[in-house]
Amino acid sequence: MSVVRQLKYRIQNGELSIVDLVKSSLKKAKEKSNLNCFISLFEDKALEHAYNIQERVKKGEELKLFGLPVAVKDNINVKGSETTCGSNILKGYVSPYNATVVEKLIENGAVIAGKANMDEFAFGSTNETSAFGPVKNPYDETRVSGGSSGGSAVSVAADIVPFALGSDTGGSIRQPAAFCGVVGVKPTYGRVSRYGLVAFGSSLDQIGPFSYDVYGASILLDAISGFDEKDSTSINKPSNFEPELRDLKGIKVGVINEFADQIQSDEVKGVYYKVLDFLKASGAEIVELELPHIKYSIASYYIVATSEASSNLARFDGVRYGNRVNSDNVKDMYFKTRSEGFGEEVKRRILLGTFALSSGYYDAYYLKALGVRKLIAKDFEKAFSGVDIIFTPATPTTAFKLGEKLDNPLEMYLSDIFTVPVNLAGLPALTLPIEFSKEKLPIGMQFISKWFDEKTMFDIAYTVEDYYKFYEKAGYGRF
Amino acid sequence: MAIERDTVFHIAKLAHIEIDERDVEKFSRQMGEILDYIEQLNEVDISEVSESLRSIHEGSVFLREDEPGASLERETVLSLAPEVEDIFVKVPPVIKEESK
Fold first, then answer.
1. Closest residue in A to B8 (Cα–Cα)
2. What is the DSSP string of A323-365?
3. Which residues of chain A fall short of a pLDDT of 50?
4. Which terminus of chain B has fewer Cβ atoms in its 10 Å neighbourhood, N or C?
5. Residue A452 sits in which domain range?
6. Is residue B98 pLDDT above 90, yes or no?
7. Interface residue B97 vs chain A (CB under 8 A)
8. Residue B76 lies in a domain
9. Would you say residue B21 lies in a domain?
């Protein structure tokens, strides 16, 4: 039985108390502080909350998340605590409100254990751009966690918490999930309210769950999704995500040959073909897809994402909140505050975005990138008229060494090559860990389904998970 | 191809970010590399996609009614600001005083 289900039953039949579970979770967080996955830990508050939930459960209340602890990425507002976005510019900012997803976590009986480390403003694929230092991969501390939701991924992978929330703009949930061996989901654009999430690329951002297994990720997504009038892109489409084993016979699985060719690690390639063989042997029909514009994804993405980021980050000016570096005139104050507060990758992306939006370049870069983006979405639309699901690798390699790509931004951007197209098209996708490499590094694969058809993605991933049982190899859920 | 130093300085000024001589070198090279990579978008004919600026998914973006509702308390908001005077957020002078 999957790990989160087991925890659920152990809690339900009184074998495991919510308070003990939360205590053990906080203890592990402190023991594993060298991984640097938390920016803040809510010790007293979490325990207090655990006692409350235990009381609620005793009174017979049925809670979707039954008291399990969750780590929340530090770009999501939790009332009364700092939201740093991994940046110095927000020093001293204490959130005056809860993000909608946080309200939903509380309502559904999750205990917020703390705020997870991340790349500064979610700009990065390794968690090395955080002003609070890099997050380390629990399987090899000389390697990166992936990013930008590195702290969230590691808090689950290190078995500290069964749940975490991240945000995914170009792969920021799915790539660290693959590097750390946990399940990570980027829901359909509009599925989850972003109210209270600090914006990066507003047409791409989506909050999503991490968990030990597919079941865990599905119930966490169920708890946080839904219409919210405070996010004008949110959509009212109730769904039940709880996964069921599916007979794969006759299921049409789309594959993208261009992607397979771009896998750099032989071991990742090996696992990709192994899972493909499993799907075939289970009776699935493999369909080779033509997506003629997908090769332009990274180019289109880095214009769209940086343009939106440069606009979104204009609000950090030292006037109303966060850190201010004073001067004798307001313009200098803006310059000093932003120059001291933002790290190098943030500056680089703001500059790139400002350039793409500036007079004389707007048509050539921004409008062009949007046009290409539309063509990529249309390619997917066409592909999905003939398949139920698309299967791809999640990353071209396993987790790389700390520092390896830090000085080569373009190379770092290219590590998101399999995840970025999904955000451009607004599709849902899930990373499923399959097995370990020879060096004991996790290898993950990606399932992409149709807009708002997360259910198919969960079902198929759940069926594949049931065969490989990565959660058993990883030994998750020791509480 | 590196982009010109003057362009980098100009863009930085637009973005209200100070950069020094060392940074400009690095940024002009790195941004140049990224823009070279992005050049490939020019191979694509986008004349067929007229509605590029429209949302790509099926949802329709809505605007809520412009009705007053609950918001954060004034004190709460002011307590977040680096400098406050009375009920105002205080900033350094916007217009320079004439030098005497």
1. A351
2. -----SSHHHHHHHHHHHHS-HHHHHHHHHHHHHHSTTTTIII
3. none
4. C
5. 3-249+385-474
6. no
7. no
8. no
9. yes
